[in-house]
Amino acid sequence: MRKIKLLIEYDGTAYHGWQIQNDTTTVQGILEDSVQRITGAPSSVHGASRTDAGVHALGQVAVFRTESRLDDGTIKKALNAVLPQDIRILEAAEVDDLFHPRDAAVKKSYFYIIVNQRVPSAFLFRYTWAVPQQLDLNAMAEASKALRGRHDFAAFMGAGSDVRDTVREINALNIERLDRVDFMTGCLRGDFIKIWAEANGFLRHMVRNIVGTLVATGRGRIPVDRMTEILQSRDRRLAGQTAPAKGLFLERIVY
Amino acid sequence: MRKIKLLIEYDGTAYHGWQIQNDTTTVQGILEDSVQRITGAPSSVHGASRTDAGVHALGQVAVFRTESRLDDGTIKKALNAVLPQDIRILEAAEVDDLFHPRDAAVKKSYFYIIVNQRVPSAFLFRYTWAVPQQLDLNAMAEASKALRGRHDFAAFMGAGSDVRDTVREINALNIERLDRVDFMTGCLRGDFIKIWAEANGFLRHMVRNIVGTLVATGRGRIPVDRMTEILQSRDRRLAGQTAPAKGLFLERIVY
Questions:
Q1: Can you give the pLDDT at residue A186?
Q2: Band of the pLDDT at A171, cuts 50, 70, 90?
Q3: Chunked in runs of 10, what are the mean pLDDT values of chain B (255 residues)?
Q4: Nearest CB to A80; choose among B80, B113, B119
Q5: CA 20 to 30 Å from A244, out of A207, A229, B1, B229?
Q6: Do A9 and B58 touch (CB under 8 A)?
Q7: Number of residue pairs across A and B with CB atoms under 8 Å?
Q8: Chain A residues with at least one Cβ partner in B under 8 Å
Q9: By C-alpha distance, which of B35, B41, B36, B40 is closest to B5?
Q10: Rounded CA gap, B169 and B202, in Å?
């Protein structure tokens, strides 16, 4: 029995998230079907992050066990041949049977894209949150400082999570304006804001709740110096709205 | 009665092209419905280019007549409020009643995007043609020279067109490799090839047939020096395949 590790990119638009569910299309479900198609045997696919419905991934990591003799390169090609176009296998490699993609993760990074202009692009609505109002990036950057480091992030955890230890450590949280985008020169030109976060782990909806709170700060609805108070309150009601799933990308998992 | 000129951006993925048809969703049809919703009266919307099913636009131009007293800025905002997210009005402005978007066009430009890598992006399949084979860009650039200038492009015209004068003048035809894309750093990084063409007008499928022929040249299936012969033959069967619609963008119409 071999254990195969996959590096996976997906556009989450069409999926009800990562985790397999009955009667609905999920990334994990599609992957398990595809593994069965190429190996001829059912196999569970275990992922590192349970991304929500509509969230995208550039670097999801998952594993499955198989008796198949197909080599790594063939597994990658065969999976890409049967998977839908919005899920791509970037790498497939045999790993030690003890490797567990969730438990072994040392840190993870996510980024979030906001399109900050009056008329949002007709092409990027699947991958961005359109915020037409003017945003004060300096205020957002100042407020974000309070979140860096090791804190109890209960105020930024979505309801319905059964996680009990809500302490996480954010190593990096950067906000930058992407003034101009080169691809398809013209159509993707515009004002984009990218919020990038790296931590030892994230709670449910944590990045989206941080983004929603930072945007409220940028709009002047939450004062810059309130971020510490929100964090210390551990009260979800004091933080801002949950930013839409479609602007969020799971970027990388470091082992 | 006022005449309003619109500058329109759209993602063509969900539409059966520009031109209104019964029982199918078209960009023109959606626009006519939307104009009626905001002005309260039916109106025909006339466009400059009849883009095919799946073709995108960054700068389609169209006009409609209306008795409405709404000012230009309000028309733009109101249309964007009722239109689907994949059609955006970039500008709305009153023009002289004699202005005709198709007849008055002096030149048009289109570009075409090829993603030239083994595993195409999970995010750009709607906007690119995935060509995994190695392409010789020098050969493609050399072959493209024969197409510049004033020629009879009958060999590059799709079947079913009723156009009789097949002479057009291509001012510019450039091929460039976009090595790295900044947006969503990581996922859109890759090898993209952009083919950009500007002419006084284009025949049906002309850009897509030129792209298909250039790609065949880049793959070594059509010799570089055969382009002149294909052009002179006026025979569609000698040129390459019609590149898929989804990689094509109507960029700009100059008046």
A1: 42
A2: very high
A3: 96 96 95 97 96 95 96 97 96 96 95 88 88 94 97 94 93 84 49 92 97 97 96 94 96 95
A4: B119
A5: A229
A6: no
A7: 89
A8: 9-11, 56, 58-59, 76, 80, 85-90, 111, 113, 119-123, 125, 127, 178, 181-184, 186-188, 192, 249, 251-252
A9: B35
A10: 9
CA atoms within 13 A on the CB side of A64: 26
Q: Give the pLDDT of residue A78.
A: 97
Mean pLDDT of chain A: 93
- With CB atoms and an 8 Å threshold, state whether B182 touches A182: yes
Active site residues of A: 52
- Give B-chain residues touching A79 at CB under 8 angstroms: none
Is A186 within 8 Å of B10 when comparing Cβ atoms? no
Residues B251, A88: C-beta atoms closer than 8 Å: no
Residues of B in contact with A111 (CB under 8 A): 184
> What is residue B121's predicted lDDT score, i.e. its pLDDT?
81
Show which residues on chain B lie within 8 Å of chain A, measured between beta carbons. 9-11, 56, 58-59, 76, 80, 85-90, 111, 113, 119-123, 125, 127, 178, 181-184, 186-188, 192, 249, 251-252
Mutate to test the interface with B, among A187, A192, A195, A250 (most CBs of B within 10 A): A187
**What ipTM goes with this model?**
0.81
Model confidence at A187, pLDDT cuts 50, 70, 90, reads very low
DSSP codes joined into one string, chain A: -EEEEEEEEE-GGGSS-SS--TTS--HHHHHHHHHHHHHSS----EES--PPTT-EEEEEEEEEEE-----HHHHHHHHHHHS-TTEEEEEEEEE-TT--TTTT--EEEEEEEEE-SSS--SSSTTT-EE--S---HHHHHHHHGGGSEEEE-GGGPPTT------EEEEEEEEEEEE----TTTTTT-S-EEEEEEEES---TTHHHHHHHHHHHHHTTSS-GGGHHHHHHHT-GGGS-PPPPGGGEEEEEEE-
- Nearest residue, CB atoms, B113 vs list A10, A121, A184: A184
Catalytic residue among B11, B23, B33, B52: B52
